[in-house]
Design a protein that fits this description.
Number of helices: 2
Radius of gyration: 20 Å
Strand content: over 45%
Shape: globular
Distance between the termini: 9 Å
Length: 453
């Protein structure tokens, strides 16, 4: 499946609510991987908090990697991972923010065709949008911005950000990311617990160059954090200046100001309800994991859920007792209005004691929506305990899943795989392996696997 598996970065990790976190450029044979270095990782005393890119030249032999630091000592938090965009003029765009620590979205633009050389850092201040300057950041309760997701729609660039009221909001750019302005609030909800919904976005952009369309942006989202609420998964899409349900029903216009009414997640199409029973097991407290749209309009989303959970929101904030999870796959056929959901595999217990819904995660192959890469400590072929999180490639024929190991017999866990989009001629997969205490402290190296299609 893969011709080479290489360590391309000695200290790095990422969260999963920013996209694209990594991109390939087929013209130059380059892969760019965003990550954040941790104080607990290699050379962490000097590199901890560095916001970085790993630029990998695939060439004709063993991949070679070069580290580019976008912002040294930015913040020791994997939530800060940059979102990447390849511009029409050959330049790369990187957009990033801290984890609720201030009210700025930052960005840098590379030299043409060269993701190793970047122009100055610029920023958009959300403070006027929040409506007040006090209390001043950092660490302002209920304020601050997190996560960046860059997509194109109708010739305009959108950057979706968790911002005001911890709601999904967005910036817009009409010059391919040179400048940004406030575009609107997408959804809102009275806050329960930590934050509002966790969103993943998808468009055809950057998947198949020249063939992908930019006629809509799809979003799947929860209501809140799964530790605070029995979260379900909801879906809508942006097109023609409006937010729609899956069946095309208009929910409301885009461009809502902060003081204007906005819909809730529940006003969208429900993908999967917390508390659903399948084959005698009950699945609850769901979390969005991945979503991709094919050139034919087919949508596939991945989600995780607790299995047979009895504690619900009464579950202790931190526990070493295993909280089992499963990976589920949802599909929306072109023209359909109802999602079809199946249970794919056990995702294992939670990764760290204080995040009871963290799992190893999974990633959809952008060029084969029937395939995915799963990080799990439970072998999906026979239910055996793998000891650590291993990565397996799974593919369905519509009835049966076939599994092939990507990693085997590992000494440490391999987690948060990303099937890299951008080059349909290659099979590209990146992940990080090591140990994790928290989103702020991990000792992990970044791996890239390369193979032909």
């Amino acid at each position: 499946m893969f011709d080479s598996v290489s360590v391309v970065e000695t200290n790095g990790g990422w969260c999963w609510f920013q996209d694209e976190r990594t991109l390939a450029d087929p013209a130059s044979g380059t892969v760019v991987i965003g990550s954040v270095a941790s104080p607990a990782g290699r050379d962490g005393e000097t590199r901890g908090g560095d916001l970085q890119l790993t630029v990998v030249d695939l060439g004709s032999g063993e991949p070679t990697a070069q580290r580019v630091v976008l912002h040294p000592g930015f913040e020791a938090d994997d939530h800060d991972n940059p979102a990447l965009w390849r511009r029409a003029d050959g330049r790369w765009l990187a957009v990033y923010s801290r984890h609720k620590a201030d009210e700025h979205t930052f960005w840098r633009v590379s030299e043409p065709g060269d993701p190793t050389t970047w122009g100055p850092e610029r920023s958009f201040s959300w403070t006027p949008v929040f409506g007040a300057t006090e209390p001043a950041p950092p660490f302002t309760p209920g304020r601050g911005v997190t996560y960046q997701n860059v997509h194109a729609l109708d010739g305009r660039l959108y950057c979706f950000v968790r911002a005001v009221n911890d709601d999904p909001c967005y910036l817009v750019s009409d010059d391919d990311g040179d400048t940004w302005s406030f575009g609107g609030r997408l959804l809102t909800r009275p806050k329960i617990g930590y934050v509002n919904g966790y969103a993943r976005y998808a468009s055809g952009t950057h998947v198949t160059p020249g063939a992908a369309t930019e006629d809509r942006i799809d979003v799947v989202i929860t209501e809140h954090h799964p530790r605070d609420y029995p979260t379900s998964i909801w879906h809508g899409y942006l097109a023609d200046g409006a937010l729609h349900r899956a069946d095309g029903t208009v929910v409301g216009p885009l461009g809502r100001g902060i003081d204007q009414a906005a819909p809730r997640a529940e006003d969208l199409t429900r993908v999967f309800a917390s508390g659903t029973a399948i084959d005698g097991r009950t699945y609850s407290h769901c979390w969005t994991t991945d979503i991709r749209r094919g050139a034919d309009g087919r949508l596939v989303a991945l989600l995780t859920a607790r299995t047979d959970d009895t504690a619900g929101t009464d579950l202790a904030f931190s526990t070493t007792d295993p909280v089992p999870h499963a990976l589920l796959r949802a599909e929306l056929a072109p023209g359909a209005s109802e999602w079809q959901v199946e249970v794919v595999a056990d995702a294992g217990p939670h990764l760290v004691p204080h995040e009871t819904d963290y799992t190893g995660l999974a990633s959809i192959d952008p060029y084969d929506l029937d395939a995915l890469y799963l990080s799990t400590p439970v072998d999906p072929r026979d239910g055996a305990d793998l000891g650590v999180h291993e990565i397996l490639h799974g593919r369905t024929d519509g009835t049966t899943w076939t599994w092939t190991p990507v990693t085997e017999g590992s000494a440490v866990s391999s987690v948060r795989p990303i099937a890299v989009p951008g080059d349909p001629s290659r099979r590209l997969l990146t992940w990080y392996r090591g140990t994790m205490e928290s989103s702020q402290r991990y000792d992990a190296e970044v791996v890239l696997a390369v193979g032909p299609r």
